[in-house]
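Late entry, written up from scratch paper. The run itself happened at the end of the previous shift, but nothing got recorded in the book at the time, so transcribing now.
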Amino acid sequence: MLRRTLVAVIGCGLFLAATAPAALAHDSLKSSSPAKGATVSGVETIELEYSSRVRFPLVVLRTAAGKTIQLGEPQADGPKVRTAVPTQLAGGPYVIAWRVVSSDGHPIEGEIPFTVKGAAAGTTASATEAAPAAPATSAESTRPAAAAQDGGGIPGWLWGGLAALVVAGLAVWLLSRRTSGPSGPSDPDSPVGPAGQPTAPTEQPDVPAGP
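Output as recorded:
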């Protein structure tokens, strides 16, 4: 009787020893896309694969500064979890934070850092290099306005020459008028001799006085 009891106890101990590691081992993440530490050109879908079937998945995508990127609703399909990335990611480091409930009912979680190549920077640089071409069109459009301000297309030096000619003509006219004015006698009562010269007054004879 005692012998049977010992055999039963030993058998239970061996069974528990064999099954304990399996019961204590939770499910784990087998692979991910993007992979941990990878550098990718872009991400359209995040895919996580676990060692067994999981439930209630939660996936969060954050930038290095802690900003959360909006994702689609995560879908669990057996051991795999997928979620869409609807927006185009800019170049830089990111972190995927995940949390699921494993097949044994215990929640498990983890993080997956990765980096997106800065492909968008090249597109921005090309757009910046093409931008200086715009002022050339503005310069062309301002030429008609500048011509209108200069007098309808007549050069400014021609206007200056015409003004100088007008001033010179006016000066000559005033000078000729001053030098060609009348030069008559200054005393209107004095007799005028030949050739316009005044004559000396004639002497009157002395008249003797009466007795």
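The mean pLDDT is 72.
(Scratch paper discarded after transcription.)
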